[in-house]
Amino acid sequence: MHSFRTFIQGSLTGIALLTFATLPQAAEGAAVKMVASDDVAKLPGIAFDQALADGLPSSIKGKKIIKVATDLTPPISFQDEKGELIGIDADIAAALGIILGVEVQMTNVGAGAAIVPAVLSKRFDMTISGINDDVELEKQVDVVDYMYDATTIMTTKGNPLAIKSMEDLCGKTVAVPVGTFQNRMVEAASAKCAKPINIMSIPKMPDVLQAVRTGRADATVNGYATSVYTTEHQVGNGKGLQALPDIRLAVGYLGMLVSKDNPELRDAVIASLQHMVDSGAYAAIMQKWSLAPLAVETVKYNDAASMPVE
Predict the structure, then answer these.
(1) 128 phi and psi, to 5 degrees?
(2) Which of 46, 31, 39 is nearest to 100 (CA)?
(3) Prediction pTM value
(4) CATH number of the structural domain 150-250
(5) For the segment 244-254, what is each residue's pLDDT rounded down to a tens digit?
(6) 1 pLDDT above the threshold of 70
(7) In the chain, N or C terminus with fewer CB closer than 10 Å?
(8) What span, in angstroms and rounded, lies between the C-alpha atoms of 181 and 187?
(9) Closest to 104 in 3D by CA, of 30, 53, 38, 35
(10) Could you tell me if 274 and 170 are in contact, meaning their C-beta atoms sit under 8 angstroms apart?
(11) How far apart, in whole angstroms, are the C-alpha atoms of residue 195 and residue 72?
(12) Domain residue limits, the chain
């Protein structure tokens, strides 16, 4: 992991103190039953597996429902023109439902800062939301590491301010999602600036991107996968956005979160994901969303400490 990690470890602990009472309930969407699209349902290995289903905890076997929290960050999880939930996480969630013989209900909790409390409050069984794994996060919840990611910088097309590093953000206005890994990363970078970064902490990722498009912010620090996808699929009013792919910071995992007192669910999910990896279904889903280079070969949990440190 890059050197900024030493500055942000420990900051995730504060998230655990949040409750849903402090978050805008109006932002939370309705639970959506995930149904696999035809291209996913026909992938090899996407079929009910009794042995894997037997590993589920009795509470889920009884109700045959897994309640999953997510937030909207394309291409991880987002809504199409019809308002339907799509993305890598939506496809994986639907596939898990088929393999485990349960209904997977996904709820958009409205903001990245709500993801950890979603599990800690026991309102949801788990999250599938592409949250960055971190050793401090692993002290609170079990993190199933299901894909790689990194962090990069996005600016308007053409990179008019010639940004080449985090140091180049000093004195500039940077929009980031509130309560996220990237928010803490920018705070750590700002602390080292002679002229601090003007940080705009915004609840929802689409609004973060829009702030850059409309010129209210000079840049955003964002997940590599999301940034590359956004560059290829421009949506929104204002100027086009451009990821700076040569800037790859905080290379690590994205993880699904499961309560530490629910190891049966954690292990059933890990086994099912590994089944998808071995069958080729997982790689096909990653390729579908143009993120094949971020695919893992072995699904692990709480593995953030294994990542290289600069």
Answers:
(1) -130, 95
(2) 46
(3) 0.75
(4) 3.40.190.10
(5) 978 888 889 99
(6) no
(7) C
(8) 10
(9) 35
(10) no
(11) 32
(12) 11-146+257-306, 150-250
